[in-house]
Amino acid sequence: MENTLISLPPPFLPPSLSSYGLVAVHQLLRYTLDKSGLEEVKIIASDSLWQPITRSLLLDAELHRAVDIIGAHYPGTNTVMEALETRKTLWSTEDYSTFNDDVGGGCWARILNQNYVNGFMTATISWNLVASYYDNLPFSRDGLMTAEEPWSGNYVVESPIWITAHHTQFTQPGWTYLQTVGHLAQGGSYVALTDGKGNLTIVIETMTHDHSVCIRPPLPAFNVTSQTAMFQLEGSFASISEVQVWRSHFGFKSKKPSFFERLTPLKLVDGFFSLHLMEDEVYTLTTLKVGQKGSYPSPPASSPFPKVYKDDFNVRHPSFSEAPYFADQTGVFEYFMNLSDPGPHLYTLRQVITERPVTWVADADQTISVIGDYQWQNLTVTCDVFMETATTGGVFLAARVDRGGLAVRSTRGVFFWLFADGTYRVTNDLAGQTVLAEGESGTRAYRWYTLTLTVQGQYASGQLNGYQLWSNAVVLTPKNGWVAIGTRSFESNQFDNIAIVAKG
């Protein structure tokens, strides 16, 4: 369990919990971990903002002993004096979340250096590592690389991957930053790290303001110009006679970027070297000779989600819990072995969260998981459904679902609801405020039903077990969107045999 970390962010605690209660929770967690033989498991607090945790650490000795690392989200490369006074390790525990074009790569290059130069943060964690979710969901391509089409296998290695290599290929856990880090005379920054065994790695960045803007927080104005930087190694490093050189040049002006290129080693004289730095560059100078850019085969071509798709969820031993291509927006939909029905519905997809999460995100009261192509307009989708909650239970099958993520509460589309009280409803939104049709269905819990939803142009219709239940509901907006399944509330319901035929 060495180096395992537990993060306990206050926003996920009940709002009524006082600051004293927060202190008690961290102390109790530390005590429980130690008593369970998990002394090496470290606690990060509060994984949000610098305050109020830093002030609490300074005021409470027991809390100070319990917490190992102070984590902040999107610190803008800066910390606060009280955080430094705690003498705790400081981390940027959520950062970046920026579109991964070359400006996003510039953001990553700048904050990887300046989070330490300005804020003494020794770790920067990217949210997220790989953008592997539907393109039209919030935070599209906000990962170090993009792999959002598992059906085609297409992926894109973006510039932030190569910027990451400038650091990770030439340092390891246990290396430490030297105190001699800082800003360059004409803008940019440099950091130096060592393994304590004579090896040295220096990373330099000269990212200009407009080419290194992150999604948050706002970036104050600053200037960077081309320059010649001079370095003098002293002490145990003065005897270094040569360093390996790796460079990334974003090429915003020339439109000819080059990333993570190995250059001719640089000779040092009495520990001295100079380096001509252009704007928007990253250099790594290191005593290590382990660097390698590597290569990868050309990825499969990008392609849209298949217009004809079926899944019966008949997976006896799934390697992971979520069915392919479903993207849960609220709730959790998992493979399930339905031992109460050893017939055609032995293996299903089940929504398993039965309590609304306590979270700062404005979640909907319903659960929803989307699948397919956001550009779909006209289609027929069929799915078997099973309600496990009597009277108040409910499920839906939907098309033209237009949003998710943080905006899921305001999601619109065509929602065909089936309820355990014997009724149905068709709404134009997930919240169920705009009703297009409703009536009696005779449905109950603990029985399997087959729902069919057809949307063509401005009209939608629905079938229950192959019989027309409603038709010609007028749908003016949205014009396109995903297919989705979901539940009326946070309740356990099952889905099986989904089949989609999209016409465009």
Would you mind describing this structure in some detail?
The protein is mainly beta and 504 residues long. The protein has two domains: 74-286, Glycosidases (TIM Barrel, Alpha-Beta Barrel), CATH 3.20.20.80; 308-503, Jelly Rolls (Sandwich). Helices cover 12% and strands 38% of the residues. It contains six helices and 32 strands. The protein has helices at 19-35, 53-59, 61-66, 81-85, 102-117, 159-168, and strands at 5-7, 42-48, 69-73, 89-96, 121-127, 130-131, 145-149, 154-156, 176-177, 182-183, 189-194, 200-205, 227-232, 242-249, 258-267, 272-277, 281-286, 308-311, 327-330, 333-337, 347-351, 367-371, 379-387, 394-401, 412-419, 423-429, 435-440, 448-456, 459-464, 467-474, 482-487, 493-502. The chain is elongated. Residues 1-20 have low confidence and may be disordered.
CATH homologous superfamily classification of the largest domain: Glycosidases
CATH topology value of the largest domain:
TIM Barrel
Give the structural class.
Answer: mainly beta
Question: Strand count, sense and closure of the main sheet?
Answer: 8 strands, antiparallel
Q: What's the alpha carbon Rg, rounded to whole Å?
A: 27 Å
Q: How many domains would you count in the coordinates? A: 2
Give the termini distance in whole angstroms: 51 Å
